[in-house]
Write a structure and sequence with these properties.
The structure holds 2 protein chains of 2 kinds. By secondary structure, chain A is an all-alpha fold. Chain A is built from 13 helices and no strands. Chain B has a domain of 239 residues. In chain B, 69% of the residues lie in helices and 3% in strands. Chain B has a two-stranded antiparallel ribbon with strand order 1-2. In chain B, helix 3 packs across helix 12, helix 7 packs antiparallel against helix 12 and helix 8 packs across helix 9. Chain B is globular. Classes of the chains: A mainly alpha, B mainly alpha. At the A-B interface, helix 3, helix 4, helix 9, helix 10 and helix 12 of A face helix 5, helix 6, helix 11 and helix 13 of B.
Chain lengths: 306, 357
């Protein structure tokens, strides 16, 4: 039983990375911008966060550095796609390719660095409950932060005026423009917020999840997060559920190996990617459903006055 | 303030000038990077733009690396021209290499030279199979080809890793994760002695010629591209978007698989976990920088090959990490996309007015 509690704990931890990144991408996409650069952006944020912790010893400064790096890269991407009307797919791809190379380049000096003792957290009293405590209440604060983020995002998108404007920009930028909203600046704000959240997820990977720096360590999580927004048909609560589901798939490989199941380790490592493909195919099977839920202007540039 | 104004027609001048300007900007950023790292920028640029062309041998090595980039990019250009976003050429390259490697491992002392053709064919079919998965999921299940093809890159790497750590591991290889060295008979024929340039280069150049004919001189090639430019017009003309999807993915998968076969049966000579060298991703940049035009891609493949060789030289001679190649590749694509704005728009100074957005 103890091992299942630990499996749940590890699932929540792995899911948090995906959830934070995917919620960031959700904000982008609700405003009509799809950022294929998530993977590269998370890698740059991971090395920025890791380096900040190495030099300052403070995890929260690491998260801040990751968010900053994410926001800056997202801003460059945003200016290109929003003001220069470059193709969103190609520009995102450029960001991903650049991020992979750049993070490896600046990270070379940090490959052998080790972070100071990783902190342990426990919610007072609740953590002492047998099984439940180990499963749910000994997590890093950001694990609960991701849950709060979902709640606040639901409120923001569907209950606040600003959220309504953001969705309007994503659904019909021309109408939002006609009403006098600065469509392009709103999109840039959304892109930078999304980038900062992806950055936070990237820093969480290198500072908490697997506290070290290895080239390419994000290992496709940025792409899985992109797929998650489609799985969730652009609803925040479903993003969180999907993230935990994929966290579970990731953790399952270690669990199965621990149980001594005789499967090639490579098959287990490939599971999250295969699962992404399978779920993507199942969810997308109904094109109408996707079309109804997808922000109508997703991926399309908007040029006022044209 | 500066304002973008849409041109009535795409600028022909900037279509060609934009990649050049992008290269100039990338070089300037590179100089800035070298200076920031306290390295002599002139020497840095030498590694990238002079060393790779200064001798016959160096030129040969330049071609060795340009060959897979060109072949993959040729295939990808068919995809991008038909608005099919195959970004998983790296995975198709790996599976092509795996299938070609499997065929090469079947050869023994008595095998004839025909095995080279079988190796190449296995590579092409492997790449087509892997890209066909993406096409099938897109066609039948409407699954986004960007995400599927990319996820399949990770799966392909795992397939390769499984084989070289498992069933195909060389029993006499001191437990290194690698297959046996292929029999000499499987070696892709080289063009001349003293250089590693193989018939792959010829295949690439012939491929570029064939692609030009297909794209610009055949009805099928025209039908293939209309869907990318104007989907509504393609539907009206009765051009099948499903067919375009399959043709695009199978062509690019086959090309990437061929490149994989040429690599493992050529310079590498065995299967190792280091077969994936990022050519599949770099070829995306080659395709865009070459304007998706066969002649342009020949030039940009050579340029991208310079980036690879320059990166290796920067590592051995200047003590810079080899990943500087990836930085420059990414920067080049960024600069190109930004410069491409000038193809469709012109910059104009306008008096700034209140309330502008």
């Amino acid at each position: 039983m103890e091992s299942y509690a630990l499996l749940i704990a590890a699932t929540l931890n792995a899911g948090t990375v995906l959830a934070i990144a995917a919620l960031g991408l959700l904000i982008n996409e609700k405003a009509g911008v799809v950022n294929l650069g998530a993977e590269g952006l998370m890698l740059c944020a991971a090395i920025a966060g890791f380096a900040a912790v190495v030099h300052t010893g403070n995890d929260w400064l690491g998260f801040a550095a990751g968010m900053g790096a994410g926001a800056v890269l997202a801003a460059i991407f945003g200016v290109l796609v929003i003001w220069l009307n470059t193709n969103q797919y190609a520009t995102g791809l450029a960001l991903s390719l650049f991020g992979v190379g750049f993070s490896a380049f600046v990270g070379i000096g940090y490959v052998k660095e080790i972070l100071p003792d990783r902190p342990h957290f426990a919610v007072p009293y609740l953590a002492d409950i047998p099984l439940l405590g180990a499963a749910f209440f000994k997590q890093h604060p950001l694990v609960y932060g991701a849950m709060l983020l979902v709640l606040s995002l639901i409120w923001f998108l569907f209950r606040s005026r600003t959220g309504l404007v953001l969705r309007a920009v994503g659904e019909s930028p021309a109408s939002a423009h006609a009403l006098g909203y600065p469509v392009r600046r709103i999109r840039l704000a959304a892109v930078m917020t999304g980038g900062a959240l992806c950055g936070l997820a990237g820093a969480y990977i290198s500072v908490i999840y697997t506290p070290l720096w290895v080239e390419g360590m994000v290992a496709g999580k940025g792409w899985i997060a992109l797929a998650l927004t489609t799985f969730a048909t652009w609803r925040p609560a479903r993003v969180l559920l999907g993230a935990y589901l994929f966290g579970g798939v990731t953790m399952l490989q270690f669990h199965l190996q621990g149980m001594g199941v005789q499967v090639p380790s490579q098959l287990l490592s490939a599971l999250p990617y295969i699962a992404t493909i399978v779920v993507l195919a199942l969810i997308s099977r109904n094109p109408t459903w996707i079309r109804v839920n997808m922000p109508a202007s997703l991926g399309k540039p908007f040029y006022p006055g044209s | 303030m500066l304002k973008l104004e849409m041109r009535p027609q795409a600028s022909r001048l900037w279509t060609y000038a934009s990649p050049v300007l992008a290269l100039v900007l990338t070089v300037l950023l590179g100089v800035a990077l070298f200076m920031a790292l306290d390295k002599d920028p002139v020497r840095g640029l030498q590694m990238f733009f002079w060393e790779p062309i200064k001798s016959g041998y160096a030129l040969g090595e330049l071609m060795v690396k340009a060959t897979p980039l060109l072949i993959i990019a040729l295939g990808l250009s068919v995809c991008f021209r038909s608005n099919v976003w195959n970004i998983g050429a790296e995975g198709q390259f790996v599976i092509g290499a795996v299938c070609a490697g499997g065929m090469a491992l079947l050869a023994d002392k008595d095998t004839g030279r025909w095995i080279v053709l079988a190796v190449l064919l296995a590579g092409v079919l492997g790449g087509m199979l892997w890209a066909g998965l993406t096409a099938l999921l897109r066609d039948r299940f409407n699954a986004n080809e960007i995400l599927v093809s990319l996820m399949l890159v990770y799966v392909a790497d795992m397939v390769l890793s499984y084989l070289v750590y498992g069933p195909w591991k060389d029993p006499a290889g001191f437990n290194f994760p690698q297959s046996k060295t292929f029999e000499a008979v499987t070696q892709i024929p080289r063009l001349m002695d003293g250089s590693r340039v193989s018939v792959g280069l010829v295949l690439g150049l012939v491929g570029a010629g064939l692609l030009w004919v297909f794209l610009f001189r055949t009805r099928a090639g025209f039908a293939q591209q209309v869907g990318g430019l104007a989907p509504a017009a393609a539907r009206y003309a009765g051009f099948s978007s499903r067919k375009a999807l399959w043709v695009a993915l199978l062509t690019s998968g086959g090309a990437a698989g061929l490149a994989g076969a040429l690599e493992v049966a050529g310079p590498i000579g065995q299967l190792t976990p280091y077969v994936p060298a990022g050519y599949g991703f770099a070829a995306i940049i080659v395709a865009f920088v070459g304007r998706l035009h066969p002649a342009g891609m020949v030039l940009s493949a050579v340029l991208m090959s310079m980036f690879y060789i320059g990166g290796e030289l920067a590592q051995s001679r200047l003590g810079l990490p080899k990943s500087i190649t990836g930085v420059f590749q990414g920067l080049l694509l960024f600069c190109l996309l930004a410069c491409d704005t000038l193809v469709a728009y012109r910059l104009r100074w306008v008096a700034s007015k209140k309330g502008g957005v």
